[in-house]
Amino acid sequence: MMEHLIPIHVGLMGHIDHGKTQLARALSQKVSTAGLDKHPQSQQRGITIDLGFTMFVLGKYVVTLVDSPGHADLIRSVVAGAGIIDAALVVVAADEGPKVQTGEHLIVLQSMDVETIIIVVSKIDLADEKRQASVESTMRSIIADLSFKRVEYVRVSALTGAGIDRLRDVMARTVTPRPRIRDAPFLMPVDHAFSVKGHGTVATGTVLRGEAKVGDSLELMPQGQKGKIRSIQTFSEPRENTSAGDRVGLNIPDLESATISRGNYLCQPGSVRTTTSAILQTKPNPLYRGRLTKGMVVSATIGMPSVTAELVPFRTEGTTRVVEDRVEGPMSQTAVLLQREVVAETGMRVLLMRTDLPPTQMRIIGSGEIVEIPDKMMLSRKHVRSGRITRVRSADVLVKGLASRKETAEALVGSSVRTSTGRGGLLAQTFGTRGVLSAQFDGPVKVGDMVMYETMVEEEYKFGH
Ligand SMILES: Nc1nc2c(ncn2[C@@H]2O[C@H](COP(=O)(O)OP(=O)(O)OP(=O)(O)O)[C@@H](O)[C@H]2O)c(=O)[nH]1
Ligand SMILES: [Mg+2]
Prior knowledge:
The chain has seven helices and 32 strands. It is mostly beta strands. Strands 12-11-17-8-9-16-13-14 form an eight-stranded antiparallel β-sheet, with no helix packed on it. A seven-stranded mixed β-sheet has the order 2-3-4-1-5-6-7, with helices on both faces. The protein has a six-stranded antiparallel beta barrel with strand order 18-24-21-20-25-26. A hairpin with a 4-residue loop joins strand 30 and strand 31. Magnesium ion binds next to helix 1.
């Protein structure tokens, strides 16, 4: 029956304790195996530790709610969730009003191109009408500075049920699925993997594109292991096949559940590649106040997995990518060097974050889109060799220190140099056997002036080098 409904995926985001999980319970009919706050630590601490999935039917839609943790340290789960949703409910408690992670999650959603959001003012049983209106109006002014396409406002209490039906109506009217591409190789990021007694490994996730059916062989990436689908389920209902947009559990006994982690992908064998570096077209977050420097270590979420990465900003001169030590103003392109291999393809969204900063500061540097995945990340750096003028003669000038041997000096003949005083010159010929060069300058120079010879050195860049 569920197979005739259109699947949509809606994230629940917002500051810790603002009532996301309680709202998921109020809206839902079925909780999945990786359901709400099942983690033992979750029950102990009374907070959400990991993504939780529940579902309910809403008119022609079957809605999967993706409940995320509000705790600042668990922001990577929020970003992972943002990659698989069509819209989000941003929950703000009426008693507390917007807090740090309210804003941070809004930036994550905007960076990940989630265009439709519903601001849910929650716990209205704890605040009077005036207070509710004030929280809503603060949210309206925050939203005014952001670029969401569609924003709705609803006030609810998960405790009394007030506003829940209206929230359902608003969701039915505003949330639309992102385009689902069926006619493409199967691709699904895994969010949970576990072993079921008598069945073996089950991997759950949201199918990003393509189709698969029972009996098909899939490849686990980046590991590269293959396995056959024995059965498929959506919220414990068995089915024969699945396609883009579905939330499914795939039973693949050939795979070992312990080797699968969040952000691994199941795909049509041979259809995706892995990489340890990529070129990003970046969209800086205007609220990020920190500096960007070469080799800066960040957390990069590429599709679903988060990886420690180094940023190497560069500018393009002709076909050469020249590394910049520091970026003043917004960077446009950057190389990202990853600590480990991940699945990547051009067009994938990447979120760049400073997880080393305290969560009260803006941690999101910006986002980007992968525009190129080179086989080797080759970047160029300006290399400066310097020497000094040792003698000024009537016909030429002698320069020492640019080379130490005649052979090296010979290689420099014909090259342009300049002095620290701004004179341009040409290295004309070698002089003697010690690497001294004879040069001509375009103006007066004197003994002791520094002479610089600049070259571009192209090197392969890797994380940690
Ligand atoms: N009075 C009242 N309390 C609520 C309401 N919704 C949630 N709560 C309470 O607020 C506390 C936090 O609720 P949760 O739903 O777990 O909050 P959360 O946003 O999921 O928290 P994290 O997942 O840890 O970020 C719990 O004690 C809930 O019982 C509400 O509508 N009214
Ligand atoms: Mg929760």
